[in-house]
Amino acid sequence: MLASIKSNEFKYESQKLAMNYFRVAIVLFGAQLLMGLIAAIQFLYPSFLFEVFDFNVARMVHINALVVWMLYAMIGSVYMLLPDETGIEAVGIKLGKLAFWVLTAAVAVVVLVYIFVQVGPGNEATIWLINEGREYIEAPRWADIGIVVVVLVFYYNVFATYTKGNRTGIMTVLVADLFALAGLYLCGMFFTDNISMDQYWWWWVIHLWVEATWEVFVGSLAAYGLIKILGAKREIVEMWLWIEVLMLFGSGILGLGHHYFWIGTPEYWWEIGALFSALEPVPLVAMFVHVLYDWGKEQGHAEAGQQGHAVNNTPAMAWIAINAFGNFLGAGIWGFFHTLPQVNIYTHGTQFTAAHGHLAFFGAYATILIGMMYLGVQGAYGIKKMTMTFKTKMAIGLIVFGVLGMTVSLTVAGYEQVLVERADLGGGWDAYFIAQELPWYLQAQGWRLTMGLVTFTGFLFLVADLLTIGKTEAAKEEEVQAAAA
Amino acid sequence: MSGKKVSVWTSITFWRRSAAWVTGTATVLLMWLTFNTMGQIAMGSDEDLQNGVTKRIPAPTVINYKIDYKMDEKRGHEVPVIGEKQPFFGKEWSAEEAAELLRHGKLTQQAKNCMNCHTLLGNGAYYAPDLTKAWLDPKWNDGTMTGITGKDTVEEAMAEFLMHPSQYPTHERMMPDLGITREEAVALVAFLKHMSAIDTNGFPRNFSQSAKRLEGGTHAR
Amino acid sequence: MFEACTDLACDNIFALLNQGPLTLTIFLHTVIIIPMFFIYFQEKKRLQEGKEEPQGEW
User: Fold this and answer.
1) Which residue is closest to A278 within chain C, CA to CA?
2) Which of A148, A173, A413, B195 shows the smallest number of beta carbons within 10 Å?
3) What ipTM does this complex have?
4) Is the pLDDT of residue B1 over 70?
């Protein structure tokens, strides 16, 4: 992936820019995992880095690096597919490149301030310059404004290229979805002294991102990936995409209600949140069926007719298949577990949420974005047919096993908290610590750390693979061609 | 040709139009619901408190009152109950003073990044206790924390703890010193007291019973 | 099956529709889904008449 800075076969500047976004994304992914390990250690050994690099700092960087690396990889994915879909170069590519460097410089400053300044005095200046203290969107206000400007440049590029080039169904969905995605960020950019009002709008950003617009975005990426990797028929893929949009937005938009059970909002949200969000897994099943159906069908065509394998990028296809399953399992099943208010009154604010968060962010987003990176490497080296290496398999195996392990551990910890702290003891300071210090909980945290280390090892294989697979596979293809000639 | 067999279920146009309809309607409904909810979660006024009008989010001057958390038979869960007047840091705060204090408290809560260890209204991180009803927690009201900090009132004990948290450890896992000043600590306590008066539809469930249950109704220890 | 509103404020449309288990949410689901029948039959008619897919409109 790094070597592709020098040698790359891309026809379009837009796709070269995409690789830059992927490179930063993978670095931030690494930062996310390291911060997660620090936080996981602190659960077991609370004196680790106490009053030097406290849990709140590690956790803040952990979740911010997560959000930012995903946004980077998402922007990269769009720049990657934009010329393929529209058939033309991104319209404002120079502006796009400038925006990349501005955004990257801003992200670097924000992270350094998080790490070295950490917290500030309780006044407006802290909100503007250090951090906003609102989970997931802690970025200080100056950076918020910078992000909006950069996103406007990006959106201009997508929209102008769309109107000038081919208007495929995939692009139509993306253009509408990205508009909503970018606009929603504005809901998180104000201060109020009313904590209920604060959390009401905060969820507009968080929920309507991860349970609506991001999911539709993933649907579009999967549609693009299936056409690109399998040669799936566009009419069928795009029909599925519209069905997914219908079901994702139909359940996801009002599914927002499941965050409004206990934050001071009226009781009618109980049933709105309950039934709409209970339907949220349905489109995820549809996506899973869609991916596997197309895979099997195209594979069958290839075996019956032309020679060889239908999949022209097995690492990317593997990650997309894991996405289809992980999205359903992590977002669908683990989300449904605690979405009903009767259950949620006990699970809300326990490790149960963390279990769901880990598997959902990984299954729904990390997987397909890694798949897009493999598509990028394939394009950068002009490889016709890229196959898995040993490193690819190690990366997939260890990361999937690690994340599943963390999820199961946190689920056990969550159950224990729900039953002991909440159901038995009714919550509160002492109830909390009694539950935190029971062996069941500590064992679960121990396994979480272990599985975190497994995931990190997998990540190292992933980086090594992304850096080398292009060169290896290109050389292999040249050899075959030379032998044939 | 009205009897001709056609497949609407595989028509892209059908799905596209349906997707547009469903998305649009859901969005409009959400906006309508939001307007309704905004009205219900706007902060009440000082007059509401004086006249005994219950609001989901009371006025900042709720810090001048005693707050309790009790089972409500009609609602079917526990609700905050605002009682008689009670001095807060030894005085009664005017509407302006209380509003300013709450604002400072909320700013401090964000600036000190409380939410990345604690949960507020159940949202945040899970490294430290939930703060939704912290003001009412038995730990502060049964003499434990007032004793440890050597203070007479809950608010003074909380402020002292917030300024020097690692001097008063109760568990191996401690709150770090975040450089909280006396003024910030007072404001944070006001923020916490106000939050405990928010009607959270019964979350956390059975919180009002937690002291009784801890007394020996459990084998969890 | 039907229960009186137990919320703090009952004088609004959503509390009014909330007359016991799931009444409000089923109402909202119905509002969203019913017009899809109209879209279905309109689309069926269009396909039977063999008209081209309308461009640039929904």
Assistant:
1) C25
2) A148
3) 0.96
4) no
B91/B183 same-domain check: yes
Note whether B12 and B93 are same-domain residues.
no
Model pLDDT, residue A7:
57
The number of CA neighbours under 13 Å toward the Cβ of A134 is 28
Q: Do C28 and A254 lie within an 8 Å CB cutoff?
A: yes
Q: Which of B5, B16, B17 best tests the C interface by mutation, with the highest count of C CBs <10 A? A: B17
Q: Which residues are within 8 A (CB) of A333 and not within 5 positions of it... i.e. 6 or more apart? A: A281
Give me the count of residues in chain B: 221
**pLDDT band (50, 70, 90) for residue C52:** low
Helices A314-326 and A214-230 cross at an angle (nearest 10°) of 150
Q: CATH number, domain at B147? A: 1.10.760
Same domain, B71 and B175: yes
Compute φ and ψ for B215, nearest 5 degrees.
-65, -20
What confidence tens digit (pLDDT) does each residue in A53-64 have?
A: 999 999 999 999
Residue B15 lies in a domain: yes
Domain-located, residue B122 = yes
- How close, in Å, is residue A416 to chain B by CA atoms? 10
Residue A291 banded pLDDT, cuts 50, 70, 90: confident
Q: Which of B14, B29, B76 sits opposite C43 (nearest CB)?
A: B14
* Cis peptide bond N-terminal to C21, omega within 30: no
Same domain, B12 and B101: no
Report strand pairing: B77-85 vs B65-72. antiparallel
Measured between beta carbons, which residues in chain C are less than 8 angstroms from residue A275? 22, 25-26, 29
- Cα separation values, A10 from A81, A313, A426, Å: 12, 17, 60
Q: Are B134 and B53 within one domain?
A: yes
Tell me how many residue pairs between chain A and chain B have CB atoms under 8 A apart.
Answer: 289
- Phi, psi of A398, deg, nearest 5: -70, -40
Is B196 inside a domain boundary? yes
Work out the percent of chain A whose per-residue pLDDT is above 70.
Answer: 98
Q: Could you tell me the residue range of the domain that residue B151 belongs to?
A: 46-214
Measured distance CA(C54)–CA(B173) in Å, rounded = 65
Structure tokens at A385: 């047919």
- Under an 8 A CB cutoff, do C15 and A250 touch? no
Q: One-letter amino acid identity for A47?
A: S
Residue entry with tokens 């067999």: B5
Highest mean pLDDT (candidates A293-297, A378-382, C9-13): A378-382
* Residues A271, C9: C-beta atoms closer than 8 Å: no
Domain shared by B36 and B139, yes or no: no
* Chain C residues with CB-CB distance to B1 below 8 A: 48-50
C9 to chain B: closest CA residue: B40
Instruction: Read off the pTM.
Output: 0.95
Angle among Cα A387, A391, A397 to the nearest 5 degrees reads 100
Q: State the Cα–Cα distance between residues A172 and A11, nearest whole angstrom.
A: 23
Query: Of the candidates B200, B158, B196, B180, which has an alpha carbon nearest to the alpha carbon of residue B109?
Result: B180
Whether A113 contacts A130, CB under 8 Å: yes
Per-residue pLDDT, B167: 94
Structural domain contains residue B221: no
Contact A133 B113 (CB under 8 A): yes
B206: Cα within 13 Å, side-chain hemisphere? 18
CB A229 within 8 A of CB A314: no
Nearest Cβ partner of A195 from B10, B117, B121? B121
Q: Do B128 and B21 reside in the same domain of the chain?
A: no
What is the separation of C-alpha B205 from the centre of its chain, rounded to a whole number of angstroms?
13
Residue A482 tokens, joined: 């030379």
Query: Contact B104/B96 with Cβ under 8 angstroms?
Result: no
Nearest CA in chain C to A279: C29
Are residues B119 and B50 located together in one domain of the fold? Answer: yes
Beta-carbon neighbour count of residue B87 at 10 Å?
A: 12
